[in-house]
Amino acid sequence: MTTTDSSLDGLPLVMAIETSCDETAVAIVAGAYRLIASEVASQISLHQPFGGVVPEVASRSHLTQLKPLIGRALDSAGIPIERIDMFAATSGPGLATSLMLGTAVAKGLSVGLRKPYLAVNHLEGHLLSPFFGAGNDVEPCIALVVSGGHTLLVKLDEVGKYEVLGRTRDDAAGEAFDKVGKLLQLPYPAGPHIDRLAVGGDRKRYDFPRSMLHSGDFNFSFSGLKTSVRYMLPKLEGASIHDICASFQEAIVDVLVLKTIAAAQAENRRVIAISGGVSCNSRLRERFQQACDETGIRLLLAAPALCTDNAAMIAAVAAQKFTRGESSSLATDIDPNLKLV
Ligand code: KG4
Ligand code: ZN
Fold it and tell me: Which of 20, 278, 286 to mutate to test the pocket of ligand 1 (most atoms within 8 A of CB)?
């Protein structure tokens, strides 16, 4: 029998399930944001032989992982499932069959235990993660979400009030890392490998394009950068992989830093919040810190554990909405192409 931690008495508890892509994750949050359990089962090794995520493999793995992960989350929180006040799940964007599994399980628990259900937008989870991880309240800022599927520059006023200032026209920043990594024969996902290989490399050795750097808007384009690496590679026989990675990474980071700072200045915002898998990147974190220090802007970076996909960020959004009395109808469907706004 579980003995519930008495410091949780009276606090609402929200369980969230995240299955939008290739991580199966379950988290429990107490109150507005006290993370009491966060379990993530990565499927990277299952997809690695294919060089990318295979949807059928992803959903089959979610199916086997979800039940044990829910059990582990409850054990580590030290609570029985009956104590949960709301069940939430990511309803989009993501892979359809993967989203269906996570939402179906959350809806089933909600019906079985007679508790409300909430559908959460994965992008909102990333967007707000720099605040919750640091235990801060959400405040007006310019937010950059850089993940494997998305590159979004957002004017954020408060929870639920967002304006998209710019997005990628083609590949997402993480997709560019992964595609260039594939060209360099690095394992999937290549972002962390490029990050590591770039250390000590010459960032100025190759002048890769900084697309749309001076386009006068806040949109991005990374497919030209990938093409440029592809055409250059045959000429780089014998070149240092460290120099190639450092130069490529610098090109992406240059554009992200310049456009985000420009957006903060144009919108007169003194806070920048950065999230998504690519925000794990060590050079990105360093360059944003330098640029923010120089311009007197406060930088909030998502904690590394909250950068890549996880359920803690989904539970955090759900907890905010639960305290406002919000919930979703059980008829709410998944939406693989769900937009932030
Ligand atoms: O947020 P995330 O886990 O999934 C999506 O919602 O897409 O992001 C995954 C992406 C992958 O493209 C991966 O290569 C990239 O984040 N990534 C990195 C690093 N760690 C993960 N990219 C660059 N440097 C890193 N250290
Ligand atoms: Zn994500």
Answer: 278
Q: What is the pTM for the complete model shown?
A: 0.95
User: 191-203 burial, b for 16+ CB within 10 Å, e for fewer?
Assistant: bbbbbebbeebeb
Q: What is the DSSP letter of 310?
A: -
- Atom nearest to 174 CA in ligand 1: 12
**pLDDT tens string 68-102:** 999 999 999 999 999 999 999 999 999 999 999 99
Share of the chain above pLDDT 70, in %: 99
> Quick check: CB of 280 below 6 Å from ligand 1?
yes
The encoded tokens of residue 33 equal 């944001």
Give residue 336 CA to ligand 2 midpoint distance, Å.
Answer: 13
SS3 22: coil
Residue 165 burial by Cβ neighbours in a 10 Å radius (0-12, 13-18, 19+):
buried
| Nearest CA among 171, 190, 173 for reference residue 181 | 190
- Give the full edge-to-edge strand order of the sheet including 13-18: 34-42, 23-30, 13-18, 86-92, 117-121
Digit-coded pLDDT (tens) for 225-238: 999 999 999 998 88
- Taking CA atoms only, the protein residue closest to ligand 1 atom 23 is 191
Span 207-266, pLDDT tens digits: 999 999 989 999 999 999 999 999 999 998 889 999 999 999 999 999 999 999 999 999
Ligand 1 near 328 CB (within 6 A) = no
Beta carbons within 8 Å of 184's beta carbon, 6+ residues apart: 190, 194, 233, 241, 244, 245
Is the predicted pLDDT of residue 3 greater than 60, yes or no? no
Atom of ligand 1 nearest to the CA of 175: 12
For residues 301 and 141, what is the distance between their CA atoms, to the nearest angstrom? Answer: 12
Q: Which ligand has its closest atom nearest to the C-alpha of 275?
A: 1
92 pocket-lining for ligand 1 (C-beta < 6 Å): no
Contact 93 CB / ligand 1 (< 6 Å): no
Measured in angstroms, how far is the CA atom of residue 84 from the centroid of ligand 1?
31
Examine the pLDDT at 1 and tell me if it is beyond 50.
Answer: no
